[in-house]
Amino acid sequence: MAPLRDAIRVQERASNDPESSLTYYTGEADPEWVVGSSHSAQIGYILSLIVQACIQKQAGSAHPDPLHVSAHFLQATKRAEFEVRIRILKRGKRFVNILADLVQEQQTRTTTHLIFGANPPSPRPLIDPASGYARRYPLRVHPSNAVLTKVFQFFRFRQRLRWAEDPGLLSRNSAMGGSGLARWGGWVELVGEEERITPASLAFLADCVQTFATLVPSSVTGVNPRSLWLPSLTLSVEYKAPIPAPSALHAARTVGVYLFSGYMSAPQGRHDTCLEIWTAPSGIGEGKEADGWRDTQVCLAVATQMQLMVSATVNEAKGKM
């Protein structure tokens, strides 16, 4: 069991076929980063392993930065050794398209399409905030004034993650006004001074949220949130800006998250979640609120996810296999 920065380590393996177009990275899925009582790794953690392998593959190239990742989860990833098989699909002047599969026991568990390029910091916002057309920072309570709330019990890694939910957003879910969308947000933080926000950890954090299934009454979803498993079928992450270095303006291991979730449909309570991940001005309960702090933060990524609502007994059965 290890902190996230160690749990996502992978290493390149030499190919047995000198003519192969594949690059191989290997690692072992850490037993702590799972959900519920199954042997299945958390979806965001799985994607972070793939992203980390591709980052190492692209290191030192003209296209070192992930710009977009789209993953389809075909089978559960076990707490065991895995292999990431990477193939360059297309290499252009500005972008590189990469296919990467996470494989266990010669079975493809997750398949991804990634776009890499260069993601340098912008000297100024592309849209002037004064114009009224720029996206405004969605959270209003500074992390120094935020109150920690309980992380999901079924997160086996809950000792390594903490959050402070935005009570204003939660209160809006009792009366949606016909929108059909639940909203959630707050500050999410990796526990441990050695932890850092990285492109790989952003993929993990994109799956550490509440969704429509947990935010609305069971009378709406038809499923008790306490006996619920939410398997993901797809998860896409677009990286909007480089991660700033830790400073007085930006925290090292804390992010702000805002999302809306809904569009529930058959079969099995399919629903979609769209979220934004922003920098944070300080750690939770740390720092001091300064005037204009919202204007100095950066949107790091946006993500979309499709999940099902399934009885937790299915997840528990996997844990007994």
From TrEMBL:
Location of the Acyl-CoA thioesterase-like N-terminal HotDog domain: 44-116
Chain intervals for the UniProt region annotation (Disordered): 1-22
InterPro entries: Acyl-CoA_hotdog (IPR042171), HotDog_dom_sf (IPR029069), Sec_Metab_Biosynth-Assoc (IPR052389), TesB_ACOT8-like_N (IPR049449)
Biased composition (Basic and acidic residues): 1-16
UniProt cross-references to Pfam families, sorted A to Z: 4HBT_3
Transmembrane region(s): none
Matching PANTHER family: CHROMOSOME 23, WHOLE GENOME SHOTGUN SEQUENCE (PTHR38110), THIOESTERASE DOMAIN-CONTAINING PROTEIN (PTHR38110:SF1)
Name of the molecule in the record: Thioesterase-like superfamily-domain-containing protein
Source species of the chain: Mycena belliarum
